[in-house]
Amino acid sequence: MATIRDVAKLASVSVATVSRVINKNGYVNKQTEIKVLESMKLLNYKPHTIARALSNKQTYTLALILPDITNPFFPELARAIEDTATKFGYSLILANSDSNKEKTTSYIESLTNRYVDGIIFASHELSLDKINQIKDSGIPMATLDRAVNLKGLPSIGVQNYEGGIMAVKHLLSMGCSKIGHICGPIYYHTSIERYKGYVDALEDINQFHPSYVVQGDFSIESGFEMANRLLSNHPEIDGIFAANDLMAVGALKALIRLKKKIPEEVALIGFDGISITSQMEPEISTIAQPIYQIGAMAVNCLIDQIQKKIPCEQSGQELELKLVARASTLKSKGHSSI
Amino acid sequence: MATIRDVAKLASVSVATVSRVINKNGYVNKQTEIKVLESMKLLNYKPHTIARALSNKQTYTLALILPDITNPFFPELARAIEDTATKFGYSLILANSDSNKEKTTSYIESLTNRYVDGIIFASHELSLDKINQIKDSGIPMATLDRAVNLKGLPSIGVQNYEGGIMAVKHLLSMGCSKIGHICGPIYYHTSIERYKGYVDALEDINQFHPSYVVQGDFSIESGFEMANRLLSNHPEIDGIFAANDLMAVGALKALIRLKKKIPEEVALIGFDGISITSQMEPEISTIAQPIYQIGAMAVNCLIDQIQKKIPCEQSGQELELKLVARASTLKSKGHSSI
DNA sequence: TTGTAGGCGTTATCAT
DNA sequence: ATGATAACGCCTACAA
């Protein structure tokens, strides 16, 4: 491997000059620049990223901490983040925290020692001391899903409340009148907002029944179980809004086993817009998050902080959701959507 | 951030001594060791990973190149790899190649410059020059799915041929007699082996019909399309073996739309054992790969190479598959499996 | 416009 | 058993 010194020697200049042409900073004569460039080609010289990192304190590496890449919500997000990071010349380190406090702490420590340039936190489990731990280390970070809402802590999220309303209104527009809700864990901000949207949309028309709400944990299994419970307690229910797509998938399974005609007898809508919803039969309607955009924004935000040292403008921004109406809600002559 | 020099000063020893206790090599007096250790605690000293990497030429970072983390096969693999890497103190860089030659090349270059300690290649697209490119760079690598079979190139795979036989035999044991096959792209080693297994199992009993085979591209969409084609050309088919689970999912969708009773009229089995198969209704039978184990072995193999400089023993090993019989093949009083 | 030299934080070779 | 000190490869004042 050729070093900067080899290049300097071959081009008969100093390493400083070579460094200048590499980094395009400082004055350098056009002639010498060409000479240097040629030498670099000749020697097939590539700057040593590690050495550069030591000197610069920039590793061009980002880290993504998420609960579990095996959860179908995250691959799409990870993809967006990796794509965008790569676009800017950054590598992406993946960390599965299992929403576990110890693992999270240990990852943060290890990433801090590796001097990653930024950390994206897509996990709900983010205690205040963890945040401060990162802040103290001086590493820029961004959180997703509004895990926390802190001054100076960039966070990208979606309009969960409005999404809840959209889901219910869609169900109503398809003729449902007894709408059940499988909500997520109540200690998640996202669950609560979606739930509130559900409540408000129904209270508006005096149709809210507390017993039509059951609580799952965002997993397929809980969706299956809760849909069964909902329908055994309230056979009259003709529409279900699941707080996320995975629970909707579980609910679909339950509905099919119960021999319910979908959407005629029971319509079903999820939330998130992950691709698995379109692979089911019938395809499941959903309130889609701009997942790719969220990931891309998070990276942009981080890189802004890293490079321009500016705080993220998108901080706290809530992106819009989009209704994706599919077979699980579209009755015969129902309306459609994009 | 405290440096090794700070620790040395506080403990009134030289940096060399501190380095010795950090790395537990060389002689060091018990007393001084304690003094040094205390100083480290006191200053909350953590060795600077980057500096260490520069000196050691070891970054404690592995890279995983795969086609697309969004493909449901890969998150499970990535999870296994990340888990195992972490266990050994390594971080994992994720790279989505989209099976694209240029992207792959550019990743390899970038990873090479980052001096990752090892690369795991889970992509089918691996031309010989790419391999040599990595080999020349001296970075240990491992490939999955027997993408290539080269002397000295560790490769972990499964018994695809036997798997094909298992799938067909299972279908036969459930009473199917007209078994179709949706095979994968013929330029993939895995596709061919599975196909051969299918052929041999049927030829054994004189039941092989070339026209019962159609070709997909491992995607859900192609599975959907090919199942439709298969059944429209051969309505008598009562069993389908899809060469991977994603195509099985697509096929399931097609069968349901065609109002086929599953498994009574048409039984269906996939290949891979990804979790999505158990989330469908009916649940899809499959020939399961030990995905987690594969990932773990790949990492072990790499770390063996890195640390002990020994070639991987598992090189070229083909792991066993396991039949997972579920509702999509289990007729009434059918047999079961683990 | 270009070169010299010190520093980034560790490791490892030699002495002592 | 311990300590100087030269690498590792690059960047960047500061000089020239």
UniProtKB/TrEMBL annotation, chains A, B:
PROSITE patterns cross-referenced by the UniProt entry: HTH_LACI_1 (PS00356), HTH_LACI_2 (PS50932)
Keyword terms, alphabetized: DNA-binding, Repressor, Transcription, Transcription regulation
Keyword DNA-binding attributed: yes
Organism: Neobacillus cucumis
Domain HTH lacI-type: 2-56
Name of the molecule in the record: Transcriptional regulator
Pfam families, sorted: LacI, Peripla_BP_1
PANTHER family: LACI-RELATED TRANSCRIPTIONAL REPRESSOR, RIBOSE OPERON REPRESSOR
GO molecular function: DNA-binding transcription factor activity; transcription cis-regulatory region binding
InterPro entries named in the record: HTH_LacI (IPR000843), Lambda_DNA-bd_dom_sf (IPR010982), Peripla_BP/Lac1_sug-bd_dom (IPR001761), Peripla_BP_I (IPR028082)
